[in-house]
Write a structure and sequence with these properties.
Two copies of one chain form a homodimer.
Chain A: H1 10-19, E1 27-28, H2 30-37, H3 41-53, E2 57-59, E3 65-67, H4 70-78, H5 80-99, E4 102-109, E5 112-119, E6 134-135, H6 141-147, H7 152-159, H8 174-187, E7 190-193, E8 200-208, E9 214-223, H9 232-245, H10 265-268
Helix pairs in contact in A: 1-2, 1-3, 2-3, 5-9
Pfam families (chains A, B): HTH_IclR (PF09339), IclR_C (PF01614)
Region (Disordered) (chains A, B): 252-278
Domain IclR-ED (chains A, B): 70-248
Chain lengths: 278, 278
């Protein structure tokens, strides 16, 4: 039903239109939408008009199109990740006041680290990443802390796979990564030393739901030369306070955030939009 | 094209399915989706399957459906409101550290106050609202600060319209509201005294883009008995710092966030999900 000659559904084409809008291109004309999506101009016109009628997209005075707030509102109200974020935010503020640096909350989604929140201070270390950045788990402390607790087959998939290198400090071999994961598992926290930004390091601890299941990572980014060991107890306390604010069974029993769905493209594409996200 | 017997487009039906998920009902079965949307079960099944293929919706182990992170990710990356939020967040953290209370950022959307962010402290005044809450502008300080700067015809639409009353303190008459707006305009900030929550008051200042156009309100919620005047200079400074972080022409010239689009239902329905949001 409702499919194009290519068999693609209307919903799929609508998602392509929505995804044509990015951080770098928040305002587009219909012809640009057609170009970016590969859809015929008439189709792009029709889908834009329907999304505008639904107030997903908006037009400005020049008839240019941009994203409205509707999708954000809907997802903000109803997604599990947002309730995690709301439970974590006050605790993250307290932690930030203490460590006086960036504090982040991340989950695994589709095998990648997805940042749900990042609290930044003015005048803190340069920080290019935004919430909704995704990066491979072996490039940041959050990913390492979560990978350290993942099932062995998930770990093997990453340690045996290709590793993207961002800086001279990045993890280069599966053996190196295996040793780092073993240490993170033993110590209960993970550290990334300039893997993405050579001058910054990240420290992450796992966050569990009341059932003891790991659901997120809480991390802090500090300059490379800062001693991070004094920060760890405060991070562990913060993580426990977040757990107290979560509902039991935050994840149901056989959810697998490490499972890469769809074409697998997403996981193989190294997208370090999170720049210095370690 | 692609319309049902009722003439409703696939995209419109898909939006109905997505909106069936709310803060109180984050996990639904397909039959519940059908029930909530009024769509035939087969249609609900098909649309859920398509949205699942697009990873907008996800299934858990019990085959129950819930919202994924995809819509949040897309909207987070590409919407203008999110870039405003990112510019404001570090400044809001500093303000919060100073005033030690809730700090909020809101815009006008479709004639309503829409909260983009709320920084809350543990142990601060009770605060039931979440980002993405919407409330009528005359019920909160953010709305009053923004309404005070709105064109006269917008003000009249609100002062002449019906006013919902939440507490004994709420504004009850158009004359009262007109006087409050005149004072807010003269002083450069607005105060709401227990309009929603009888024990809290909100203080709001407008936030402008580098072109001088008002784009948002920055507000603080404190207990009713706290003297708010000492807070005002810090709020005005914070507002100016946010302006510095915004791109010029944040809004294009004839955007009108006060315009109520669609059926008009939205603006007439008093939805104070923002509880003590003043």
């Amino acid at each position: 039903m409702a499919n194009s000659a290519s068999g693609e559904s209307v919903i799929s084409r609508a998602m392509r239109v929505i995804e044509a809008f990015t951080a770098g291109s928040t305002v587009l004309g219909v012809s640009e939408v057609a170009q970016r999506t590969g859809l015929p101009l008439a189709t792009a016109h029709r889908i834009v008009a329907e999304l505008e009628a639904e107030r997903v997209l908006e037009r400005d005075s020049q008839r240019k199109i941009r994203m409205g707030t509707r999708l954000w509102e809907i997802s903000q109200r109803s997604s599990r990740e947002m309730s995690l974020r709301m439970a974590a935010l006050p605790v993250m503020h307290d932690l930030q006041a203490l460590v006086k640096s960036h504090v982040q909350l991340a989950v695994i989604s589709d095998g990648e680290v997805l940042y749900l929140e990042r609290l930044s201070r003015r005048n803190a270390v340069v920080n290019l990443a935004h919430p909704a950045s995704r990066i491979p788990p072996y490039l940041c402390s959050s990913g390492l802390a979560l990978l350290a607790e993942a099932p062995r087959e998930v770990q093997s998939r990453v340690t045996d796979g290709p590793l993207t290198v961002s800086t001279d400090h990045s993890i280069r071999t599966g053996d190196q990564l295996r040793a780092i994961l073993a240490e993170a598992r033993r110590r209960g926290f993970a550290v990334s030393y300039g893997y993405i930004q050579p001058t910054a390091k990240g420290i992450a601890v796992p966050v569990r739901d009341p059932d003891g299941r790991t659901v997120a990572a809480l991390s802090v980014v500090v300059p490379l030369e800062v001693d991070h060991l004094p920060i760890i107890p405060a991070m562990i306390t913060a993580s426990r306070l977040i757990t107290e604010g979560l509902a039991p069974h935050h994840y149901t029993s056989d959810d697998d955030p490490w499972r890469v769905r769809g074409t697998g493209q997403r996981a193989s594409r190294p997208r370090t939009t999170g720049a210095d996200a370690d």
